[in-house]
Design a protein that fits this description.
Blueprint: E1 2-11, E2 17-27, E3 32-36, H1 43-50, E4 58-63, H2 73-83, E5 84-88, H3 99-109, H4 114-128, H5 143-155, E6 161-165, H6 173-189, E7 193-197, H7 201-204, E8 209-214, E9 217-223
Parallel strand pairs: 3-7, 3-8, 5-6, 6-7
Antiparallel strand pairs: 1-2, 1-4, 8-9
The structure holds adenosine-5'-diphosphate (2 copies).
One adenosine-5'-diphosphate (ADP) is lined by residues 39, 44.
Protein name: ABC transporter ATP-binding protein
Organism: Vagococcus silagei
Pfam families: ABC_tran
Length: 234
Amino acid sequence: MLEIKNVSKIYNEGLQFQALKSIDLEVEEGEFVGIMGPSGSGKSTLLNLIGTIDTPTSGKVILGGKEPAKLNSEELAKFRRNELGFVFQNFNLMPTLTVEENIILPLTLDGEKISVMTKKLNIIAERLGISELLKKRIATISGGQAQRVAIARAMIHEPKLILADEPTGNLDTKSSKDVMGLLEDLNQKEASTILMVTHDPFAASYCKKIVFIKDGELVKEIYQNGTREAFYDD
Ligand code: ADP
Ligand code: ADP
């Protein structure tokens, strides 16, 4: 479902800083893949390329058989909303809107019917245990609740691929466990494909495959068995 072929990214034409060097990576449908590596190693750059927020300097990113770099900006915005779900560390929610307004925002942008939106909203809120929060404003809920809302918003379009950047980065132990449990359910029960950047060994323990990136290169790939052993590595 995702193919990254010989992808390089160079920032700043003048300074020529190479953030990614000839990356090859394939992600199959239904995989739960972690990306780990030191700060500055290129994780966000890679996620931005996959998330179609940025384009590679060379090489190809192919998502669901399409090459986002070839789409015009209107097609790209639609592609992003329909095919991808984003879950960020700082939640990226609109603080002055309510929980339900935030969740249905991607559908509103597509001009979806209210009856359809309400139905989808209720199903997803129920599944993520946030039905009681729908009328609250984002500013009034906890970090763990906000991350559930972010996951709900990422899911509302039933995206093929969920991209998560440090989803437990701002959460306490209990909320981290809840959020990772949700992502695990989405992966196992709904067959969502998940790609997650994380520094958190606990979050990484949920991934079946972890790729390590260092100085813009993929240096190692490991597979974990089903047991949840805490995962510690350099
Ligand atoms: P990570 O997510 O692993 O911390 P990043 O992908 O954010 O790493 O950054 C990789 C390298 O690319 C870093 O050295 C960073 O400073 C540089 N970089 C990231 N974004 C830009 C940019 N827009 N312009 C120039 N350099 C950048
Ligand atoms: P993280 O470590 O969480 O990935 P960063 O602080 O590295 O976040 O980067 C935050 C944002 O700043 C990213 O969008 C990245 O592309 C951009 N950025 C990082 N380094 C540079 C840089 N040297 N020049 C310009 N933009 C940068």
